[in-house]
Structure formats: C-alpha cells, structure tokens
Write a structure and sequence with these properties.
This protein has four helices and five strands. It is an alpha/beta fold and 107 residues long.
Length: 107
Amino acid sequence: FIKCFYHVPLGEPFQGEIAKKEAEDNGADGVRQWRIDVLAETKDGYAVIELKPNAGAGALGQVLAYSKLLQKEWNITRKITPIVISDSVSPIMEQAAAMLGVQVLVA
C-alpha cells in the first residue's frame, strides 16, 4: 500500500442541523458515525478493509456499503477493492464473498 488511513468516517447519520448539533453536544456523533477500519491507497485505487473476528455476512455488507459511500462522498473514479480480514470464515461466507467481488483474507 502507498498510504493507509484508519477509522475513516463516512456518511451522515443525522438528518438536519438540529439533530447534528445535538449529536455533537452529547457525543453521539462519534458513536453513530460509520467508519472504515482501514482505507489503503494502492497504485490502482483504494482498498476498503473491514477487520472482523469470525466474519460473516455482516462483514460483507459493511465493506460493500463503505465502498459505495466512499465512492460517492470522495467522488472516486479509480478502482475500489473491498477486503475483509478475519481470523476465521465459513465456506459459505467465502463463496458469497467471491460472488460479490469481496476479497477475504484469513490471518
């Protein structure tokens, strides 16, 4: 990787300025904000990496959602590669990941 960024915020979880201000005041903005675990720049684009113990379908959904939000919010036209890194995954999770174009690494 060329560069890595950690805990990258995405999306706006609150509708309207009043809700945003209330969330900032009570600390909910940091808790409800969606965040990419690791965003890595590559020579071809970016890798969106979700770190998840015993990863399942939820990890696939997260990394795909984060990839699409990143593309929209950062106006990215280069390739975005979704990756899940886990300590274990089931065979059905690996099959689903392959069909969805998500790379899975077991460490």
